[in-house]
Amino acid sequence: MELQKLTLHNFKNIGEATLEMSSKVNCFLGNNGMGKSNLLDAIYTLSFCRSYTGVPDRMLVKQGEDFMMARGVYQRGNAREELTLGMHAGKRKTLKRGDKEYGRLSNHIGLFPLVMVAPRDADLITGSGEDRRRGMDMVISQGDSLYLDALIRYNRGLEQRNRMLRDGIADSILYQAVEAGMDMAAEVITATRRRWIEQLSTIFARHYAAIAGTAEQPALIYMSRMATEQVSLQALLDRERQRDVILRHTSVGPHRDDIEMTLDGMPLKRTGSQGQCKTYTVALKFAQFEFLRQSAGLTPMLLLDDIFDKLDASRVENIMEQVASTDFGQIFITDTNRKHLDEIVSRIGDDNFKLWSVDNGCFTPITGL
Q1: pLDDT tens profile 355-365
Q2: Which of 25, 35, 286, 333 could be cross-linked to 304 through a Cys-Cys bond (beta carbons 3.0 to 4.6 Å apart)?
Q3: What pLDDT band is residue 339 in, cutting at 50, 70 and 90?
Q4: Is residue 267 within a helix (H) or strand (E), and if so which, with residue range?
Q5: pTM to 2 decimal places
């Protein structure tokens, strides 16, 4: 799958832009804050209906303007597809595929798969379990619609149960009526996450070794009370109901799951250097790309935003070698250093690339190396 053309109006700091893309490598060169990352975020938002940065929808509209539009023309398999995302100030955003508007935006997730690597991925290591769950859910949901449906059903039930707890409802029969649906969804979520971690771990270790060039041993460990204690969610909720009534929120369930990230048996969050942490997140995203390519039946787009920061020369070299391989399809990459971009392009060994200079939301084509 590839993005052939992108048109933006008032997306963040980008007033007007129309770019015809290369089917292989698209490079964006410029200083920080000029709009490189915003362009990648526009591509991400077309696939996921939300910003990669997690900002509220209203912040996608350029300051001082009252509407935003992002349109992408894709080649998806043998079909030409067009997506149009629009939003007016004070109104909900809409997404059209061709001329038809989605009734439920969740029906769009996974149809235009991509993986993005960006500086905020450091949150996967240093952030909360919510950051790691969100990353896990976004990858699995792209290739598994049943998982996404279970996740939506579970979160809907969780919201209802938490509302009951806040309102001080104590009737166990009312709770059980809500919890029955949560329990069925939780079983799907937990089993799928466990399989995903098992499948991803081997792929991830291979990518980490290729980038690090060392014998360090990374590991991903799924942390789930349902999986560890081998009990149903209903059993956990029954056990913790009185405590939840006091706390006024649901203290157990898949929304509390986490991934423990270790290196040589030690928690990476506490012992990893900046270079090791960056290597870990890049390798994890490359592993997710490989997993997604296998499960989604389409080659995802790969978005690389300033990925060479905090890495030594040898690790930068190893990443360039991986990116230039035939394993990846269409790539979008940003950097403040043209040397990195030129080296990646030269490694690919053909003329199937495009390079733009980015300045204050304006994109100027650069020809030649």
Answers
A1: 999 999 999 99
A2: 333
A3: confident
A4: strand 266-267
A5: 0.90
**247 residue type, one letter:** L
Q: What is the largest CA-CA distance in the chain?
A: 71
Of the candidates 118, 135, 28, the residue with the CA atom closest to the CA atom of residue 310: 118
pLDDT of residue 54: 87
Rounded CA separation 270/279 (Å): 15
Indicate whether 340 pLDDT > 90.
Answer: no
273-286 CB burial, b ≥16 within 10 A, e <16: eeebbbbbbbbbbb
Strand order in the sheet with 353-359: 114-117, 301-305, 331-335, 25-29, 353-359, 362-366
Place of tokens 């410029």: 30
HSE of 44 in the Cβ direction (CA atoms, 13 Å)?
Answer: 23
* Buried-state track 124-139, b at ≥16 Cβ within 10 A, e below 16: bbeeeeebbbebbbbb
Structure tokens at 167: 């309102």
